[in-house]
Design goal:
Layout: H1 10-26, H2 41-44, H3 54-73, E1 75-81, H4 86-91, H5 96-112, E2 118-123, E3 132-135, H6 140-150, H7 157-179, H8 185-197, H9 203-206, H10 208-213, E4 218-222, E5 241-247, E6 252-258, H11 265-292
Parallel strand pairs: 2-4, 4-5
Antiparallel strand pairs: 1-6, 2-3, 5-6
Helix pairs in contact: 5-6, 5-7, 5-11, 6-7, 7-11
Length: about 290
């Protein structure tokens, strides 16, 4: 299913998925025992001919060519990691979402040697007209953790595990704040739009730091439900990745989209898989010490 985003968000679409999945699996209108329809389709369906002049035909062909070019330029790469699922992560007393986000940060750091502006969509459906707020997964703690994993020989497994724990706790706190309207992105966006309507130039909106944090190389979002096999979306910047990720009771994985000239998506996926390997090795080597506590 493909949907345009401006009218609504993943929460509404997920509700649609659930309803269709439940009805089609539990109360299907058509099934193996269904009798053939007692109607002649040829009598019910008629061809509708639409007369278009040359101008309309040319406009449609131009739009079609533009659309096809955009679609064909979008690369899609998938990665499934069956070893990591919700139960596995919770068994190690960690947040599944924070675990996946840290793996994404670590993958990008492995690939580039640096961190980058990252967007995680957070639903504000607790509010009557709530839609989303931006949750910023990149923190000082995630940067330190990525650096430490890149130099594993200089840190013990216990030290690395403590860093993962700290990242998870900070991530959960930021996620709760964003969900309850305590994020800053939507607030600043509204202020910028108000300033524009009054033709006012505000220093913060011309600051390179503001531009940098809104050039989201990693744009991420997740929908976790048994009715959804996989989801995805295009990057929000030409040199970035669109990352749909999920972690269910059965598995985890990511769907990475990119445009030509961007970072190599296959390299990113390799680094993502390697990051999960590294993190799981740390969890396994420290699990007895954690269980004692």
């Amino acid at each position: 299913m493909n949907f345009e985003h401006s009218w609504g968000d993943g929460v509404a679409v997920l509700r649609l998925f659930r309803e269709i999945f439940k009805d089609s699996t539990e109360r299907p209108r058509v099934h193996k025992a269904s009798a053939p329809a007692k109607i002649d389709v040829a009598d019910r369906v008629k061809r509708l001919d639409i007369n278009l002049d040359a101008s309309l035909t040319a406009s449609i062909e131009t739009a079609r060519a533009k659309f096809d070019n955009q679609v064909n330029s979008l690369g899609i790469n998938l990665c499934e990691y069956p070893h990591v699922n919700k139960a596995y992560v919770k068994q190690h007393r960690l947040s599944p979402d924070s675990f996946m986000q840290l793996a994404l940060q670590m993958a990008f750091y492995k690939m580039t040697g640096t961190t980058t502006a990252t967007y995680e969509s957070c639903s504000t459906s607790a509010f009557r007209h709530g839609r989303t707020e931006t949750m910023r997964p990149v923190t000082v703690l995630t940067k330190q953790c990525c650096e430490a994993f890149a130099q594993q020989t200089e840190h013990s497994a216990a030290e690395l595990r403590a860093m993962i724990d700290a990242c998870s706790a900070a991530h959960n706190n930021l996620l709760k704040q964003a969900a309850m309207g305590q994020g800053f992105d939507r607030h600043l966006f509204a202020l910028r739009k108000i300033a524009e309507t009054h033709d006012r130039e505000v220093d913060i909106f011309t600051d390179p730091a503001y531009s940098g944090i809104n050039h989201n190389i990693l744009s991420t979002s997740t929908l976790n439900d048994t009715s959804v096999e996989i989801g995805g979306f295009a990057p929000v910047v030409s040199d970035g990745f669109g990352i749909g990720y999920g972690i269910t009771n059965a598995r985890s994985g990511i769907n990475v989209t990119s445009y030509p000239g961007s970072h190599n998506p296959k390299d990113f996926i390799d680094c993502f898989r390697s990051s999960l390997d590294d993190m799981c090795n740390v969890l396994e080597s420290t699990k007895h010490a954690i269980q004692k506590h």
